[in-house]
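TASK: fixed-backbone design
INPUT:
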């Protein structure tokens, strides 16, 4: 059976989105073409995430839908659920042709070849010696490029499956990273996003350079206008990194810094290895060094043993620190993690109620913060058509806020333009191009 077309469905974080770009590049190298929908493809890739709730149920449900198509495709299950479940996924359906863990995505071509020869393949585990061939990546965006700098995680938070599905930390050489970034910049990419489960734990295996050194070097690559990075861990956010963020105008004024819970009792059970007061002190130092920084965070609601008082500590911390955006999730036990075995699980009814209260608070705070920008000028990197109106552009400011503005005919995708904000919502801004602003001031520049 010769497969000629593919369709990729991606669930999860930026790491998964970038993995899909790696997979797509290899499929195109084999001569497969993209299909417009799953029902039109010979091969459907499900690039999965097991961090959030009920991932296995979602996979089984999606496989069931694909099996009922008029022309059922071969299904390739990739990502963290593939690593977690392994060969058992083959027993779920005869349509599953291969299972490919995130540590083996460089072998997707071999998996396809096996299926074409009438075999079923399971490729999981981690290969520390595997090469990162960035030249085969199929980039979805012409303006933004994602670059993995460290894979895996050594933190072993009690709720998190990542160390088990993506392995231990493994950093790429700084030389290799810079070569990829320079290649992207030479091709017209304006913004680079450096990726890692704990990106600021990066240590160059050749020179020992830390993440602050890498970030500073990336920001010096000619042609770039912005550098972002995700996800940082509070324990690794040191003064050197803070100094790069404060002094280098190319580094985005956006930082995603998860705190997960405002209760010291819960933080200890999560094995986060910092306290509430230490996190508050870190945010204070950050805002002193970079007054215009825009912060987002992650919160888990209903972690085993979380009392109403624990939850109220989280709410008080959110009110105090006022994050621009909060990604909050109800706790869901992940197979193989210590928290999955804790006996004092919180009921779904209680978790849903707490989530509702939390989102009411965070939406109000986000709206208040966004309204503070009304009347100001924001430097916006144009991404493409607005999702709301094709007559508008959509882009992001230096602080990663979404900005929509009417097209004037004098800008195109990849341009950085000044937009005067005239209206604010909880999750986006609306403005008009302001040609009177030639360059927006940033910290560290006069």
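OUTPUT:
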């Amino acid at each position: 059976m010769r497969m000629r077309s593919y369709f990729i469905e991606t669930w999860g974080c930026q790491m998964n989105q970038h993995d899909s770009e790696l997979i797509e590049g290899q499929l195109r190298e084999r001569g497969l073409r993209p299909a417009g929908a799953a029902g039109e493809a010979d091969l459907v890739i499900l690039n999965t995430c097991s961090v959030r709730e009920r991932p296995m149920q979602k996979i089984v449900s999606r496989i069931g839908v694909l099996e009922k198509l008029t022309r059922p495709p071969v299904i390739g299950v990739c990502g963290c659920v593939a690593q977690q479940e392994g060969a058992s996924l083959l027993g779920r359906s005869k349509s599953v042709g291969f299972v490919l863990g995130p540590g083996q995505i460089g072998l997707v071509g071999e998996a396809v070849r096996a299926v074409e020869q009438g075999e079923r393949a399971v490729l999981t585990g981690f290969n520390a010696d595997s090469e990162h061939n960035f030249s085969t990546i199929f980039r979805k965006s012409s303006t933004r490029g994602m670059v993995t700098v460290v894979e895996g995680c050594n933190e072993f938070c009690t709720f998190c499956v990542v160390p088990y599905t993506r392995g231990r930390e493994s950093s790429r050489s700084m030389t290799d990273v810079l070569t990829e970034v320079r290649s992207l910049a030479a091709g017209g990419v304006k913004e680079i996003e450096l990726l890692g489960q704990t990106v600021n734990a990066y240590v160059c295996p050749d020179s020992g350079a830390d993440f602050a050194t890498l970030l500073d070097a990336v920001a010096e690559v000619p042609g770039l206008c912005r550098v972002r990075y995700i996800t940082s861990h509070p324990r690794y956010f040191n003064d050197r990194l803070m100094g790069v963020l404060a002094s280098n105008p190319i580094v985005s004024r956006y930082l995603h810094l998860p705190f997960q819970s405002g209760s010291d009792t819960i933080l200890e059970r999560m094995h986060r290895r910092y306290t509430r007061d230490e996190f508050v002190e870190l945010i204070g130092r950050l805002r002193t060094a970079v007054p215009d920084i825009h912060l987002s965070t992650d919160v888990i609601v209903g972690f085993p043993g979380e009392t109403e008082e624990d939850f109220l500590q989280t709410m008080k911390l959110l009110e105090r620190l006022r994050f621009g955006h909060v990604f909050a999730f109800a706790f869901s036990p992940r197979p193989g993690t210590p928290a999955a075995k804790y006996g004092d699980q919180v009921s779904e009814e209680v978790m849903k109620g707490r989530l509702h209260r939390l989102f009411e608070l965070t939406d109000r705070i986000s709206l208040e913060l966004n309204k503070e920008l009304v009347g100001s000028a924001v430097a916006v990197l144009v991404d493409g058509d607005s999702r709301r109106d094709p007559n508008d552009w959509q882009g992001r400011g230096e602080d990663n806020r979404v900005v929509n503005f009417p097209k004037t005919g004098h800008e195109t995708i990849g341009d950085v333009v000044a937009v005067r904000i005239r209206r604010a919502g909880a999750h986006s801004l609306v403005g008009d191009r302001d040609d009177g602003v030639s360059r927006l001031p940033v910290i560290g520049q006069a």
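COMMENT: The CA atoms of residues 9 and 46 lie 5 Å apart.
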